[in-house]
Write a structure and sequence with these properties.
- The complex is a heterodimer of chains A (499) and B (315).
- Chain A has 16 helices and ten strands.
- Chain A has 499 residues and is of the alpha+beta class.
- Chain A has three domains: 37-129 and 199-286; 133-196; 302-465, no CATH class.
- In chain A, strands 1, 2, 3, 4, 9 and 10 form a six-stranded antiparallel sheet that branches. Chain A has a four-stranded antiparallel sheet with strand order 7-6-5-8.
- In chain A, helix 9 packs across helix 13.
- The two termini of chain A are 34 Å apart.
- The longest helix of chain B is centred in the C-terminal third of the chain and has 15 residues, at 231-245.
- Chain B has 315 residues and is an alpha+beta fold.
- Chain B contains eleven helices and 13 strands.
- Chain B has helices at 2-11, 17-28, 34-38, 40-49, 64-67, 70-74, 115-124, 231-245, 274-279, 284-291, 299-309, and strands spanning 57-61, 80-84, 94-96, 105-106, 109-110, 137-141, 159-165, 168-176, 192-196, 203-208, 211-213, 249-257, 261-268.
- Helix content of chain B is 30%, strand content 22%.
- In chain B, strands 11-10-9-8-7-12-13 form a seven-stranded antiparallel sheet. In chain B, strands 1-6-2-3 form a four-stranded antiparallel sheet.
- The A-B interface holds A 323, 326, 372, 374-376, 425, 429-430, 481-487, 489-490, 493-497 and B 2, 4-6, 8-10, 12, 14, 16-19, 22-23, 64, 91-92, 114, 118, 121-122, 125-127, 132, 189, 207, 210-212, 276-277, 280, 282.
Chain lengths: 499, 315
């Protein structure tokens, strides 16, 4: 049919929007796809110490930037009497200033980082190799080393590895000569620059739980033609270990202090584990327009939405059972409400309580029907009856020590009353058989809806990815245009498949 | 197993509930027109305007106040059927066949006192209407069964259902009350459904409880003899209901009155699929053929076209 085109377009759009937003939030924001996923949270504290010489002080500390493997959750500084500025040029830095200070000074910066395998490096600006000036004896030694390494390597990366290996083996005379004048990382940068390869020294922190008074390690960042490669200048190992946090990567000093002396920075760190969903939720809520999620709401409303967002799943189960299977229920979406009640009780308690209430209600309704009452009055009478039944069962259960049964009050009373009324009419008109079919169908649907809605995966996904509702909507729209047979129709029309 | 059955059903052109709802009811029946058929009073008025005969209207009960004097008035009638104006699926119909000496009887069985009032009151409070909306009770005079069908009537009046698509009759059946169904023409309560040949109005096959049967289970009258009298007029009247309502996919329920011929009982905008079982044939091939036909022919011509297009070998 011609008018199906736009319909499928809308369905596809909804699906793409829903799943796309979900993928984006999972990959970019690190919202976990699995329920109960735990993530390591690192608390890293940098302690800056120096002796102020009695005058204005400016202390500037490099701060870790967005990088692969970690996501910054929050950061704090503590420094009594100092003004604080965050500067952005040449990498993030904290700048403490004070007009007058004397004696031992302590400045603190702490950051919370979540291990996030999905986080990626921002695009890095390539470092160009700048011409290097050597002292005369060094120049020849350097040239010799570079020539040798170049001869035994194929490209920038292998050249860097070769150079590091040269120094690790640590035998040659030229190497020893050069190492007297330069630190090894700095030397490597100079040698690489000589070979026309951009590189820089970056400062990284090895994260180990419970460590205190740690220092940054210099690492070598080589800007090869096809990307940035990190090397351990001591071992020559390539790539970033999982527990390595790059603290300073723009080639600046980690710490500069004006107006003080004997400055140093130490790091201490702690690891704890937190449910990933919660970590992301509490710290990323409301970051930008695209992440305006339910998690920015107050907790009470959040828990309300937690339930509300499950209802479409229940509706989907009803739609599936109705359209694909053909199960008849008493009241189309009544089973979803019953399933919601089941979720607050346990399934067995719920089933027993439901059957008890409806069966007793039907008995009493049978008597009411003899009174020849008007419909609204009769249903109201049934409502009161249902409440009375609940009260009686609760009290009885309490006396018997069955605390579970107290949850019977979670049933939607009005819905139960209407269910009883409808089933009673059905009984009178179509007989008990039909009541069993529809009652059984309703219960089966309710149980399946409950199983779907109570599934930890479903609960996790609907709450953490509200955009999935769009995909659910698309699915329900698709089902709504399904013209094939219902499963039970295959049985209903069975005589027509014979002979 | 499922796939095999599915293929067979599809090969026979059996229309399922989903397909009916989307492709026929949804596509051809304008929602705005539903009230015309969902309210029996409106249907009756409409039929009167278009010269389509319906059973005589004895009374309408609109308020609880009117319920009180009801049995005194109804006792003067020889028999009646009380229905909710907006009922569905034949629910809430009370038939009284005898009112001698003020006792209401249903085929020999006396009703409890006050039963008629109680029923009317229930109808008014919406017990039988969709969604429990307040309703109106319609009281109609009884229809006298055509003697030519009496052998198969099972005590009631046979009810003829014609499915009319875009004004063309596409399939027909007659529903016969049985002892099992309590005289009601309700198929899943045990009434016999007999498929009818559109060309002649003769029986094609009978089905009770989804089982084929060839004779009325109570009287033993063979369906081979069954032929609906005045078939052409009846088909034309069914076809005319399309022009009357504008509903493209329509179930027309008719009864044959001994004296007045075919009477329109009610119209249904969502006719059921059981007619396929009673005819042993799927609706889809016929609906497909009608979809290819042009619109705008008069009713009698459409009925004639259907007679020629869908002949079946009678029993």
């Amino acid at each position: 049919m011609a008018h199906r085109g736009p319909f499928f377009f809308v369905v596809a759009l909804l699906l793409i929007a829903g799943l796309g937003a979900m993928a984006w939030r999972a990959l970019e924001l690190g919202v976990p796809l699995k329920p109960g996923e735990q993530r390591a949270i690192w608390e890293v504290e940098a302690q800056v110490r120096f002796t102020a010489i009695g005058g204005p002080v400016r202390a500037s500390l490099a701060l870790p930037e967005q990088q692969a493997g970690f996501r910054r959750i929050s950061e704090h500084t503590a420094s009594s009497g100092y003004g604080l500025d965050r500067t952005g040029e040449g990498g993030r830095r904290a700048l403490w200033t004070v007009r007058e200070a004397r004696g031992e000074q302590h400045l603190y910066y702490s950051v919370q980082l979540m291990a996030a395998p999905g986080a990626v490096d921002p695009p890095r600006e390539p470092v160009e190799a700048e011409p290097v000036l050597w002292e005369p004896p060094n120049e020849e030694a350097a040239r010799a080393i570079v020539e040798r390494a170049r001869a035994r390597s194929a490209d920038a990366v292998s050249l860097a590895r070769r150079l590091i290996a040269t120094f690790s083996e640590g035998s040659g005379e030229s190497e020893r000569l050069l190492e007297t004048s330069y630190s090894r990382p700095e030397l490597l940068v100079r040698l690489l620059a000589d070979a026309g390869i951009g590189a820089r020294v970056v400062h990284a922190l090895r994260l180990e739980d419970g460590r205190r008074r740690q220092s940054l390690e210099p690492w070598l960042e080589v800007h090869a033609a096809d990307g940035v490669v990190l090397f351990n200048p001591a071992s020559g190992a390539r790539g970033r270990p999982d527990n390595l946090l790059l603290w300073e990567r723009s080639g600046e000093a980690v710490l500069t202090v004006e107006g003080g002396e004997n400055s140093r920075v130490h790091f201490s760190m702690l690891r704890h584990r937190e449910p990933a969903a919660q970590a992301v939720r509490s710290h990323l809520g409301g970051q930008g327009l695209l992440d305006l999620t339910i998690h920015t709401l107050p907790l009470e409303e959040q828990s309300l939405f937690k339930t509300l967002l499950l209802i479409p799943v229940g509706a989907l189960v009803v739609v599936l059972l109705r359209i694909l299977v053909g199960i008849r229920t008493s009241g189309t979406f009544m089973p979803v409400l019953i399933a919601l009640a089941f979720m607050r009780m346990s399934l067995t308690t719920g089933l027993i309580a439901f059957t008890l209430v409806v069966a007793t209600g039907l008995l009493i309704r049978g008597w009411l029907s003899r009174l020849n009452l008007l419909l609204v009055a009769r249903v109201s009478a049934v409502i009161i009856t249902v409440i009375a039944i609940m009260a009686v069962f609760s009290v009885l259960a309490w006396e018997l020590g069955l605390n579970q049964a107290m949850t019977i009050t979670f049933f939607p009373i009005i819905i139960l009353a209407w269910t009883i009324e409808r089933m009673s009419v059905l009984w009178e008109e179509e007989g008990g058989h039909e009541v069993l079919i529809q009652g059984g169908g309703s219960l089966l649907t309710a149980v399946l809806a409950y199983l779907a809605m109570d599934n930890p995966w479903v609960r996790h996904l609907t709450f953490n990815f509200p955009e999935l509702q769009l995909a659910l909507l698309a699915l329900i729209l698709l089902l709504g245009s399904y013209t094939g047979y219902r499963l039970l129709e295959l049985r209903r029309f069975r005589p027509m498949t014979e002979d | 197993m499922f796939r095999k059955r599915w293929r067979r059903l599809a090969a026979r052109g059996v229309v399922g509930m989903n397909r009916r709802n989307i492709r026929y009811v949804g596509a051809y029946n304008d929602r705005r027109l539903y009230p015309l058929v969902d309210d029996k009073r409106r249907t009756k008025e409409l039929a009167a305007e278009h010269g389509v005969a319906t059973p005589p209207l004895l009374a309408t009960v609109e308020t609880q106040f009117q319920v009180r004097g009801l049995s005194r008035f109804l006792a003067r009638q020889s028999g009646f059927a009380m229905k909710p104006a907006r009922g569905s699926g034949g629910k809430g119909i009370l038939v009284v066949t005898d009112t001698a000496d003020g006792t209401f009887r249903q085929g020999g069985e006396a009703l409890a006192t006050g039963e008629v009032e109680r029923h009317a009151s229930n109808i008014l409070s919406g017990l039988y209407s969709l969604g429990g909306a307040p309703d109106v009770a319609v009281v109609e005079g009884l229809v006298a069964c055509d003697p030519l069908l009496a052998d198969w009537s099972g005590g009631g009046v046979p009810d003829i259902r014609v499915v009319v698509f875009r004004g063309y009759p596409v399939m027909a059946m007659v529903r016969l009350g049985t002892r099992a169904s309590g005289g009601k023409a309700n198929l899943h309560q045990g009434a016999v459904g007999v498929g009818l040949d559109l060309a002649t109005g003769r029986a094609v096959q009978g089905v009770q409880f989804d089982r084929p049967c060839h004779a009325h289970p109570d009287s033993g009258a063979h369906f081979g003899e069954l032929a609906v009298p005045g078939w052409e007029a009846l088909l034309a009247e069914a076809a005319a209901c399309y022009d009357m309502t504008g509903l493209g996919y329509l179930g027309v329920d008719l009864v044959l009155d001994r004296d007045r011929g075919p009477l329109l009982l009610e119209l249904n905008a969502r006719p059921g699929l059981a007619i396929q079982m009673t005819n042993g044939e799927g609706l889809k091939p016929r609906l497909d053929r009608v979809e290819a036909e042009p619109a705008g022919r008069p009713a009698a011509e459409r009925a004639e076209w259907s007679q020629a297009a869908f002949p079946r070998a009678p029993l």
